[in-house]
Structures are given as structure tokens and as C-alpha cells.
Amino acid sequence: MKQEENELQFRLKQEQLIRKSVKKKIPNLILSNDLMTHQEACDIDDIWKLNLKDRWRRYRSCVQTYCLFLYHKIEQEREGFKIIAKRYKEAKMQTVIGMTTTFAARYRSTLRDIKPPIVIVEEAAEVLEAHIITPLSDGCKHIILIGDHKQLRPNPSVYKLATRNNLNISFFERNV
């Protein structure tokens, strides 16, 4: 019994020493600049047969490849952002901005930033009330609804909901 305890204590001490030495080595292994080339990586048949040094080289090359991938992706997003920022600046300077009600709902925050003083809704008799309210912002002083309330009505997708809540009557028709 005592011999088993001694063996267990010996093993625990060995494991602690191994952990300490590994903790000291790992930062050096991670920060090393020794990378595996693409050709060397392609020639690997079984990664488990690689020695520790080559595994670390492979790991660092994979990390570098992934970092380059992310860097290129970020650059692409940055270019997209520049284009959108340019369009936003141009839109702020425009006197007339035309869009569908779907687009207005999708870019509601941008419309709130632009604060258009006048909103014109064409075919207002066909548009649901929520779609008319979406482009309105604090800066809106006038809303102009154009359409014929005797022609087409809004077409909600859920019939029961439309009849129960009067969604089949447009905002335009309510106010005429």
C-alpha cells in the first residue's frame, strides 16, 4: 500500500515537472518563425508520424495561412465599407432620393440619419400602413401620399389577420 502511494507521488511529481517544462517551451514554439513550406505540407502522408518540431512548423504555417485569409477578407470588407460610406455621403447631399418601401424598411437607420424633410409615397393605396410609417423620421415635415384609394387595396399575406385588424384598408384610404 505504501509502495503504491510512493509510486503515485512519484508520478505526480514527474507530471508536474513535465507540465512546467512544457509551459516554458510552448511560448517559444508558438512564437518561432520556422514555418513549413506549402510543398512540405503537401508531402505529408500522416500527420501523426511527424516529429514534434515538424508538427509545430505545420501548425504555424496553418495559422499564418488562416491569418492571411482573414486579412484579405477584412480588406474586402473595408473596400465594401468605403463604397457604402461614399454612397451614404452622396445620399446626404442629394435633394431627392428614390427607393421602394422594402428598401426603406431595410435601411431604416440610414434614413433616420439622413432625416428627409419630405417623404413621397407613390401608389399609397396599395401600401400597408407599416410600410408608409417606416421611412418617416424626426426630420420629416411633410408626407405626400399619391394614389387612388378606389383602385387596388393592400394585399396582406394572412387573410384572417388582415380582416380582424383591418389591414386590408391602407393608411391612405383611412385618411381620405
From TrEMBL:
Pfam families: AAA_11 (PF13086)
Domain of life (superkingdom): Eukaryota
One GO BP: regulatory ncRNA-mediated heterochromatin formation
Domain DNA2/NAM7 helicase helicase: from-to ranges: 92-154
GO cellular component: nuclear RNA-directed RNA polymerase complex
GO molecular function: helicase activity
UniProt-recorded name of the protein: DNA2/NAM7 helicase helicase domain-containing protein
Organism annotation: Dreissena polymorpha
